[in-house]
Specification:
The complex is a heterodimer of chains A (113) and B (112). Chain A has 113 residues and is mainly β. Chain A has no helices and 11 strands. With 112 residues, chain B is mainly beta. Helices cover 0% and strands 54% of the residues of chain B. Chain B has no helices and 11 strands. In chain B, a hairpin with a 6-residue loop joins strand 4 and strand 5. Classes of the chains: A mainly beta (113), B mainly beta (112).
Chain lengths: 113, 112
Amino acid sequence: EAQVTQNPRYLITVTGKKLTVTCSQNMNHEYMSWYRQDPGLGLRQIYYSMNVEVTDKGDVPEGYKVSRKEKRNFPLILESPSPNQTSLYFCASRTTAPGYGYTFGSGTRLTVV
Amino acid sequence: GQNIDQPTEMTATEGAIVQINCTYQTSGFNGLFWYQQHAGEAPTFLSYNVLDGLEEKGRFSSFLSRSKGYSYLLLKELQMKDSASYLCAVSPNPYNTDKLIFGTGTRLQVFP
C-alpha cells in the first residue's frame, strides 16, 4: 500500500531533550515536506526537500533540523525542544509530476512540557 | 506578504450544493491545491488548478481565476461524510521549489 509512515504518533517530552520524528515513504517520491498544524494558524511548512541532499526552509524552520540522506526517509529533528513546539506535525511527499498533491502521513502529536 | 483567506466555517444540508471560496495574495503563482481534512486525520488531496477555469472530479469541482486571485471548491450532492475542513493551498514560487502556503481552512458541517 502506498503510504507515508510517521513515528511516533504521540510523544510527550521535556524541554531540551533532543528528539527525532521519523518519516518514510514507499512511493519513490522526490518531494518531501514537514508541516506543523496549530489551531487558528493552519498548516505551516517547516522544511521541504526536493531530492536527496537537497533541503530548504519553509516558513517556520527555527528550532528544527532535517536531513535527506535517502530518497525514502526525511526525519525531523528537534535539538532542544521548547513548549512552543507543542503541535501536530505532518510529513508529506509527492511526485514531481504536475497536478498531483501531497500524500500525508498520519501525524505526530507532540507535547513539550 | 503572502496571504490566503477562506471562510472559517460553513454549514449546509445533505443533498445540497456548497461553494467554498479562497482568495490569495502571493508573491507569485505556480498552482493552487484543495485538500480535505476530517477531524483528527491527515489532509487528503482533492484537486489542483494552475490554469483559469473549472476542473471537475465527480461531485467535487474547483475553479480558478488567476487575475482575481480567487478559487472556489464546489461540492455537489452533499453527504454527511463531507463534513470536514477544506484547505486551500498556493504554490507561490514559479521556480524550482516545493514551497506551499496553506489557508487556515474552512470547517464544513453537513446536517441531515
